[in-house]
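Table 4 source record.
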Amino acid sequence: MSNQELRVLGQDEGVDGCCPGLLTAPLDEDQAVELARVFKALGDPVRLRLLSMIASRAGGEVCVCDLTPAFELSQPTISHHLKLLRQAGLIDCERRGTWVYYWLVSEMTDRLAGILTRPAGEPLPAPSGAAS
């Protein structure tokens, strides 16, 4: 994962940093652009299914040969979707002989969860113009 992706997700290079949530500080333009790329990758039903299939696989990794038959799409189309998930930092892969094996980058999904989670017990901010 690049330093830019870590910064976008509220992290420095250390893994013990705290993830600021969307409710704690507004995103700057660069953060919003990078984070939108991750959410865009998640915004497609095929990519969301692929991510779910990879994340839920016993053993933590899955061969592309096991992913492709689950879809009525060509192998190049599945490869394109997997490439977009990789570029977003959600999955990683390794070629072993003829096949490519994929696994979830749990640090990225954990950071996304941290961004979207408000601290327990804290109310959501009141909308502007709400009656008191």
